[in-house]
Design goal:
heterodimer; A: mainly alpha; B: mainly alpha; 13 helices; globular
Chain lengths: ~300, ~325
C-alpha cells in the first residue's frame, strides 16, 4: 500500500499539457532510477545501454561497410569466412562482414521497436484510461475492441498489412503497434477501476475539476509506472516481431536488420556450412529482447512487491 | 447466471468478433493503394477481360453492394479464386489448414500438460533456490525467436546428426491410402517430431509459470487448511483441493497461448517447409495473390477466436464465479 500512496503526491503544478508532460517525464525518471536496484535491472540496463551505444556509434564501431564485400589478404573475395580476428562473426556468401551488419542492424531494430512500443503503449494507456474512468457503454465498446484485437492472429495480420501497405519501416511500426496496444489497455483499465474510487479523485471532483483534468492530471500519473512496464515488455515483443517479419522477407528491403541477415542466411541454403551466419544475428536478437524483459521483470518486482516473497 | 446463458452470450460475442474481423478485412483490402479490383482480378489480364470480370464480380457496384456480395459469398463458403493456383481458394487452403492444425493442436496440448505438471511440481517441492533460475529460464525461452531456434535445430538434427528429415511433411513420393494413414504413419511422425518438439518447448513456459504462481497463491487459502483439518489424506488435499483450484488461471491463459503458438507456428512452417497456412500466406504476399492471403488470414482468425470461445466456456464450467460478471 505504501508505495502506491507515495505515487499520489501532487507535483508542483504547471499549466495544462505542459504540466502533464512534465509530471509524466518526472515519473519515468524516478522509475528508471529505481530499476537499477536489483540484478535483473542492472543486467537489463547494461544490455540496453550496450545496444544503444552500438546503435549510436555504428559508423565508428563497425569495422567494414555493411554491404561491401571484403577481401582476403591474397586479394580474393572473403566469402563464407568462418569467424576469425579479421571477421569476428564471419562473412556472408557475398563476402560481407557479419559483425558490421549486426552493428548497423542494431540502429534500425532499436528505432523500430521503441517507436512501435511507445506507440502501442500510448494508445493502450489512453484506451485503458478512458474505458476504466468513464465505464458504462464506453467501457464495453473499448473492451470488446480489445477482445477483438486479442482474437487477431498477430503475425498473419502483420503479413496481410504489409501486403496492403507495402514494405517499409513505418509500415512495420504501424502493424506492430496496431495490435500490441491490447495488453496495456487491459491492465491500465483494471488499475483505473480501483483508482477512480479513491478519495483523491473525489477531492478533485469536489473542487470542480473537469473529467479530462481528473483523468490526465490525477489518475494518469498513477498508471504511468504500469504502462512503462508494459512499454518494456512490448519493446521486447516488437524486436521479436520485427525480426520475424524481416526473416520472412517482409521488412524494409532497402536497409539492414537482424531478421533480414537471417533471411539471407536461410534463403542462401548455406546454413549447413556457414553456421556463424545464422548464429550471431540471432544471439543479438536474444540479447536485446532479454535485456528488455529483464528490465521489465526488475521493474515488476518494484511495483508488485509480492513477487519478491516467492 | 446459468452456464447455458453464459455460453450463449459468449457465442454471440464470438460471432460479433468474426463479423468485425471479416469487415476489417473487407475495408483493409479496399483502402489498398492502387487498384482494389486486384483483390479478385489478376492485373495480368487484358483490360477488356478485366472489365468483364469486374462486372461479373460486381466490382462496378457501389461499396455497400459489394460488401453485401462479399458477406453473402463468405457465408456460402466461397472464398474466391486464387490467381496463382487458378483454383477456388477453398480447394487450395482446405488441406493446408489441416496441416497447420496437426502441428498447433498437439503442440498446445503437450505444452499445457507439461507446463501443468512441471509448474505444479516445482511449486509443491517449493524449491526456493530454483526460483530465480526458473525466471531466467522462462524469460530466456520467451526471448528466443522461434524461427531462429528452428534454423539452429534444423542444422543440428537434420543436417549434422541426420536424425530427422530436413523438410516437408513426408518423404517425396509417398502416397497415403486415406486421411487416417496420411497422419498416422511413421514417416509422417518422423517429419513431425522436430517442429512439434520445438514448438512445445517454446510455449511450455507460459502455462508452467502461471501454474506455479497460482499454486503458490492458493497454498495459504483457508479451504486447504480446512481440508487438512478434516483429516483427508495429503494426496487428496493436494490433488482434489489444491491443484484443482490452482488450475483455473491456467485455463484463462489458454486463448493467449493459442495466439502465440499460432504466430510461432507460422514461422516454423517456413523453416521446415511445412505445407500449411503460414507458408501459404507468405507465398501469397510475395505473389500478390490477394484472395489466398485474405482467406488464410480469416481461417487462422477463426481458429484463434474459436479456441478462445472454447477456453471461455471451459473456464465458466470450471469456475461458476466467472458467470456472475
Amino acid at each position: 500500500m505504501e508505495e502506491q500512496l507515495g505515487c499520489e503526491q501532487e507535483t508542483t503544478p504547471l499549466p495544462g499539457l505542459l504540466g502533464t508532460v512534465a509530471s509524466a517525464g518526472r515519473a519515468v525518471g524516478n522509475q528508471l532510477s529505481i530499476i537499477g536496484s536489483n540484478w535483473f535491472g542492472r543486467i537489463g540496463l547494461f544490455g540496453l545501454g550496450l545496444f544503444l551505444v552500438l546503435a549510436l556509434l555504428a559508423a565508428v564501431l563497425a569495422p567494414y561497410p555493411p554491404y561491401k564485400e571484403t577481401y582476403r589478404p591474397d586479394g580474393e573475395v572473403a566469402f563464407l569466412e568462418p569467424p576469425s580476428l579479421a571477421h569476428p562473426f564471419g562473412t556472408t556468401l557475398m563476402g560481407q562482414d557479419i559483425l558490421s551488419q549486426v552493428i548497423w542492424g542494431t540502429r534500425r531494430t532499436l528505432v523500430i521497436a521503441l517507436t512501435a512500443a511507445f506507440g502501442a503503449a500510448f494508445v493502450g494507456t489512453n484506451v485503458g484510461l478512458i474505458a476504466g474512468y468513464y465505464g458504462g457503454k464506453t467501457d464495453t465498446i473499448l473492451m470488446r475492441l480489445t477482445d477483438i484485437a486479442y482474437g487477431i492472429p498477430f503475425i498473419p495480420f502483420a503479413m496481410v498489412g504489409i501486403m496492403i501497405l507495402g514494405r517499409g519501416d513505418m509500415v512495420l511500426v504501424i502493424v506492430i503497434a496496431s495490435i500490441l496496444w491490447r495488453t496495456t489497455s487491459r491492465v491500465v483499465r483494471s488499475q483505473v477501476l480501483t483508482l477512480r474510487e479513491r478519495p483523491f479523485v473525489a477531492a478533485a471532483k469536489s473542487m470542480g475539476a473537469s473529467s479530462t483534468r481528473i483523468l490526465y492530471r490525477h489518475i494518469a500519473p498513477n498508471v504511468i509506472p504500469l504502462s512503462f512496464l508494459y512499454t518494456l515488455i512490448i519493446a521486447g515483443d516488437a524486436v521479436l516481431t520485427e525480426a520475424s517479419l524481416s526473416f520472412l522477407g517482409l521488412g524494409n528491403p532497402k536497409t539492414i536488420s537482424w531478421g533480414q541477415i537471417l533471411f539471407y542466411a536461410f534463403s542462401s541454403q548455406r546454413m549447413r556450412q556457414a553456421w556463424w551466419w545464422g548464429l550471431f544475428p540471432g544471439l543479438a536478437i536474444v540479447a536485446l529482447v532479454l535485456s528488455a524483459f529483464f528490465l521489465g521483470r526488475s521493474y515488476e518486482e518494484i511495483i508488485n512487491p509480492r513477487l519478491r516473497a516467492f | 447466471m446459468e452456464l447455458r446463458i453464459f455460453i450463449v452470450k459468449r457465442l454471440l460475442l464470438m460471432l460479433l468478433t468474426f463479423f468485425i474481423l471479416v469487415t476489417l478485412v473487407f475495408v483493409l483490402f479496399r483502402v489498398m493503394p492502387g487498384n482494389p479490383a486486384a483483390l479478385v482480378i489478376s492485373p495480368a489480364l487484358e483490360p477488356e477481360a478485366q472489365a468483364a470480370l469486374m462486372h461479373q464480380f460486381g466490382l462496378d457496384q457501389p461499396l455497400h453492394v459489394q460488401y453485401w456480395l462479399y458477406i453473402k459469398s463468405l457465408l456460402r463458403g466461397n472464398l474466391g479464386h486464387s490467381f496463382h493456383y487458378r483454383q477456388p481458394v477453398s480447394q487450395v487452403l482446405g488441406p493446408k489448414l489441416l496441416n497447420t492444425l496437426v502441428l498447433i493442436g498437439p503442440a498446445t496440448l503437450f505444452a499445457l500438460i507439461a507446463g501443468l505438471f512441471m509448474g505444479g511440481l516445482t511449486a509443491a517441492r517449493r524449491a526456493g533456490k530454483l526460483d530465480s533460475a526458473a525466471t531466467v529460464v522462462t524469460l530466456t525461452i520467451k526471448s528466443l525467436p522461434t524461427f531462429w531456434t528452428s534454423m539452429l535445430a534444423l542444422v543440428a538434427f537434420a543436417y549434422v546428426l541426420k536424425w530427422v528429415p530436413s523438410a516437408g511433411m513426408r518423404t517425396p513420393g509417398y502416397v497415403a491410402d486415406n486421411v487416417f494413414d496420411k497422419f498416422f504413419n511413421l514417416d509422417f511422425l518422423h517429419h513431425l517430431a522436430l517442429p512439434l518438439i520445438i514448438l512445445t518447448l517454446h510455449f511450455v513456459a507460459e502455462p508452467l509459470l502461471t501454474m506455479r504462481n497460482s499454486m503458490l497463491e492458493t497454498q495459504g487459502e483457508d479451504f486447504i487448511d480446512m481440508a487438512r483439518a478434516k483429516g483427508i489424506g495429503e494426496r487428496r488435499v493436494v490433488y482434489n483441493h489444491w491443484v484443482r483450484n490452482a488450475l483455473l488461471p491456467v485455463v484463462s491463459i489458454v486463448p493467449m497461448m493459442v495466439g502465440h503458438i499460432m504466430g510461432g507456428e507460422v514461422l516454423l512452417e517456413i523453416v521446415f517447409s511445412w505445407p500449411g497456412l503460414g507458408r501459404e500466406i507468405v507465398n501469397a504476399v510475395n505473389a500478390l495473390d490477394y484472395p489466398v492471403a485474405q482467406a488464410s488470414f480469416l481461417m487462422l482468425a477463426v481458429v484463434v477466436v474459436g479456441l478462445n470461445f472454447l477456453a471461455d466456456a471451459a473456464y465458466a464450467w470450471l469456475d461458476p464465479r466467472v458467470r456472475l460478471e
